Amino acid sequence: MEILNNSSLRSFNTFGIEQRARHFAKVASTDALKEALSWAKKNNQRPLIIGGGSNILLTKDYDGLVIKNELSGYEKIKEDEDFIYIKVQAGEQWHSFVLYCLEHHYAGVENLALIPGCVGASPMQNIGAYGVEIKDVFHELTALHKTELTKRTFSLKECNFGYRESVFKNIYKDQFVITDVTYRLRKKPVYHIAYGAIRQELEKRHITELSIREIAAAVIAIRSSKLPDPAKIGNAGSFFKNPSVPIDAYLSLKANFPGIVAYENADGSMKLAAGWLIEQAGLKGYRQGDAGVHEKQALVLVNYGNATGNDILKLCDLVMQTVSDKYGVPLHPEVNLI
Q1: How many domains are there within the chain?
Q2: What is this structure's pTM?
Q3: Any catalytic annotation for residue 244?
Q4: Where does this one sit in the cell (predicted)?
Q5: Residue 167, domain CATH
Q6: Is 269 tagged catalytic?
């Protein structure tokens, strides 16, 4: 393991923000990860674990040790009549794992195609898209305690998944490093095409016989048409969570804004489309210098070139305040602010 000093983080975050780490190391094994964490503890340096850097906004230099998780590999753990269990190392790219599943005809993650980031982040925030979340295919994960350097296995129940939430974002925040995730994938697909965008794309492609490959292709086409490529325009995908409100608050909003887009939650509350709220508040395509609201998808904040993390943060604050003033609905960032 090599530790670099005063290292640029521009190429390790998809916003393309230029901030620096006091110390930086890449780890490709659990032993190297333990070594890095031990070094951080011994030298009194706060460790920050990053994967694909697709869900962080760097607002300042990091005064500690940034550890880039590059653990890689796939392993078939077990299978039964209906399911196959695949353990994936946390540093693997998420979309590469989706492609792996398509190639081997393992169903369950096709709706999650083209989501940026690494496997280790998938249970951290219970990533989801088009009616599917990680909790739907999750079996268990292994995590390493940052200071005790002990391994612990977390079951589905122990992860306490919620909407873009897990125990790793609240009660265990900054305590563990996820090293691998085991997914329970179906041998016989159950298709999720309730979202209108998917149905429309399938119709556009004249698909009459469903398959996981066709659904993944539809999702990739939809995401590619709406979301900017981080390699071309810096961004972290959806910047805000979709807010939920009680049914009476939703009915009041609908009376004033008949076109409001919402979906019913299991508990009877209504999840509002944050992108619609932002767009209807007049901010789609809005720009402050090189920080902007994307012109095709208002849920995405972008760096047009030389925006700083604080430029993006100021725009975030403006969006939240504008939406709150117009609708009385608070927005919350999905991206981790560092």
Answers
A1: 3
A2: 0.90
A3: no
A4: Cytoplasm
A5: 3.30.465.10
A6: no
